[in-house]
Specification:
With 296 residues, the protein is α/β, with parallel strands linked by helices. It has a single domain, classed as Aldolase class I (TIM Barrel, Alpha-Beta Barrel), CATH 3.20.20. It is built from 13 helices and 8 strands. The protein has an 8-stranded parallel beta barrel with strand order 1-2-3-4-5-6-7-8, surrounded by 5 helices. Strand 1, helix 2 and strand 2 form a beta-alpha-beta unit. Helix 3 packs parallel to helix 4.
Length: 296
Amino acid sequence: MSISDRLNGIMVPLVTPFDTAGDLASESARGLIERHLEVGVTGFYIGGSSGEGFLQSVAERCEFMKFVSNVVDGRAIMIAQVGALSARDAHTLASFAAESNYDVVSSTPPFYFNYTENEIVAYYSDLAELSDLPVLLYNVPGTTGCNLSTDAQIRMLNISNVIGSKHTDTNFLSAERLMRAVPGAKIFNGPDEMLTAGLAMGMAGGIGSTYNLMPRHYVDIYKHVLRGDLVAARASQAIVNDLIFELLRISPGVIPGIKLGLGILGYDVGGPRKPFQAITADTSEFERLLAQCGEL
């Protein structure tokens, strides 16, 4: 079965563990990886926003990428997020991913400078040509500031060796246009709170930060929609949305709250890297909802 046929379901964008000094502590992720595999996730997305990839050096990203690949050892689909401020760094990471037995590489569009859409399309064309692995686009305008037109995204999805897109955008009109214009493209839902809606529209699966905390509920949502049971899917979505709503209240940057939650669940992955700060808000309701989710 080709990777395109297998690229469906719930992909966890794994957090990256750090020790008390803020250094990479890869081994601390082993138990979390095993827990996700036991729950039945389809795969892992490494080095993305949830993994604080842009707060790490290329060497650190490669080290953790290799560690996760060794632990998973072919038991799940592996996607490496290789986006970087430098296209050369992105190409280095893509080559390392191929050497480390990943199945797919993904990349944010180049950002910081105000690149034109033609420059961004050319970036993906170069990456797709260089990469030995298929490329999954990563549309995340909320963090990159790249508000790509639907036409530009369609152009990118039609590039040879581009397999689909991680659509971390609440613009579902655009998502519907992409799926209709490029049949067979693997479009993944990014907004966690909208997974049921994305799957009901025909998306291939989901990739979202809070999957780290509640993988069982997201796997359930995927299965419910696959069976056509939208009532059950909505019930599971309501559970995760309650926690998401409270998470955003205590941790607008999301990552500190997710790592706090993982610590409560017994997974010592450390805190986030600076400039993230420790949470100072009252977390009692967050902790109550987390316990209520039944992921302990």
